[in-house]
Amino acid sequence: MTPARRRRAPPKTEQPYVPGTLLDWTSSKHWDYERALPCRYCGFDTQLRDSHGKAAHKVCAEDALAAQARDAAAAYRVRSH
Fold first, then answer.
1. Which of 15, 63, 64, 79 is 20 to 30 A from 43 (CA-CA)?
2. What pLDDT was estimated at residue 11?
3. Rounded distance, CA 81 to CA 3, Å?
4. Which residues are within 8 A (CB) of 40 and not within 5 positions of it... i.e. 6 or more apart?
């Protein structure tokens, strides 16, 4: 007899998103000392770079990640019902 697989229950409540707390950009690799480029999300110039080296404000990147997480959670809820 094989044991039944148990599924982990979804979290009871979603944690509220607080801007500025999702990503840690304290490393100097996130700063371009040479030049400012347009942010890939809002278009305003920034010297910040994401983990792929593309120009992005930290808050803009966090907002985009939070939106992706919301969209994925909504799609999961739709598919699971």
1. 15
2. 65
3. 26
4. 50, 54, 55, 56, 60
Specify the pLDDT at position 43: 97
Could you give the number of structural domains in the chain? 1
Position 45 in a domain: yes
**Mean pLDDT, rounded, for 14-33:** 78
Which of 70, 74, 77 has its CA nearest to residue 15? 70
Closest by Cα among 5, 62, 52, 53 to 32: 53
Q: What is the dihedral of CA 49, 51, 54, 57, to 10 degrees?
A: -40
Residue 73 lies in a domain: yes
CB atoms within 10 A of CB 56: 25
The pTM assigned to this predicted structure is 0.67
Task: Report percent pLDDT > 90 for the chain.
Answer: 40
